[in-house]
From TrEMBL:
Highest taxon above the source species: Bacteria
Catalytic activity: nicotinate beta-D-ribonucleotide + ATP + H(+) = deamido-NAD(+) + diphosphate
Keyword Lyase: no
E.C. designation(s): 2.7.7.18
Domain annotation Cytidyltransferase-like: ranges: 6-175
Enzyme class, broadest EC rank: transferase
SUPFAM superfamilies named among the record's database cross-references: Nucleotidylyl transferase
Protein name as catalogued: Probable nicotinate-nucleotide adenylyltransferase
InterPro entries the record matches: Cyt_trans-like (IPR004821), NadD/NMNAT (IPR005248), Rossmann-like_a/b/a_fold (IPR014729)
Organism: Psychrobacillus faecigallinarum
Length: 204
């Protein structure tokens, strides 16, 4: 039985912090594989800055030399009404029926699930396992204890509360490109060159 982590994000663009996070989580949680899952541009709560094809190409470039990393375009191909984490995890458990599948997320998302903001949040928590990464200012144990949705299913959470506080974001990198900055050491070299070659994130 393999241990597989599903790592969802906009990846707009993918950064060195994304890669470092996936590697660190994979090592600490003894994952055999981390699946990079770019979200759909059709989600109502997300606004992408480049075409899906560019986000996808950059992910492939970023992970090409790591045999423990894989990309999956499942959510990219979903309509907005079906692009939710419950359906996503159902899909991956069906794809890997003999393996243990985890959803990797930050503690900020744990707060939202606990507050009942996610579609089918209670079913999601009851039926799945999670790896939750610390975020500054969020007490994960307190979040779980205060939410009936979370505290009644707390055996499904693996909390990582140290050493994952790097906060260089994709939005920071986009802003640097737009302002004519030099963020080349914040993302893989081949992704940096891809952005330059395709004139992405440039201010019009």
């Amino acid at each position: 039985m393999a241990r597989i982590g599903i790592y969802g994000s906009s990846f707009d663009p993918i950064t060195n912090v994304h890669l470092w996070t996936a590697s660190t989580v994979g090592r600490r949680c003894r994952l055999d594989k981390v699946v990079f899952l770019p979200c759909s541009h059709k989600r109502r709560d997300k606004e992408m800055n480049v075409a899906d094809s560019h986000r996808w190409n950059m992910i492939l470039l970023a992970i090409e030399n790591n045999e423990n990393f894989e990309a999956d375009d499942y959510e990219m191909n979903q309509e907005a009404w079906n692009a939710n984490t419950y359906e996503t995890m159902k899909h991956f458990k069906e794809k890997y029926p003999n393996d243990e599948v985890f959803f990797i997320m930050g503690a900020d998302l744990l707060v939202d699930i606990g507050a009942g903001k996610w579609q089918r949040g209670e079913d999601l928590v009851k039926e799945n396992k999670f790896i939750v990464m610390a975020r500054d200012g969020i007490d994960m144990l307190k979040v779980i204890s205060k939410s009936p949705i979370l505290r009644n299913n707390d055996e499904g959470f693996h909390l990582i509360d140290k050493g994952l506080a790097m906060e260089i974001s994709s939005s920071y990198i986009r802003d640097e490109f737009a302002m004519g900055g030099e963020p080349r050491y914040l993302l893989p070299d081949n992704c940096y060159q891809y952005i330059i070659d395709n004139l992405l994130y440039q201010r019009e």
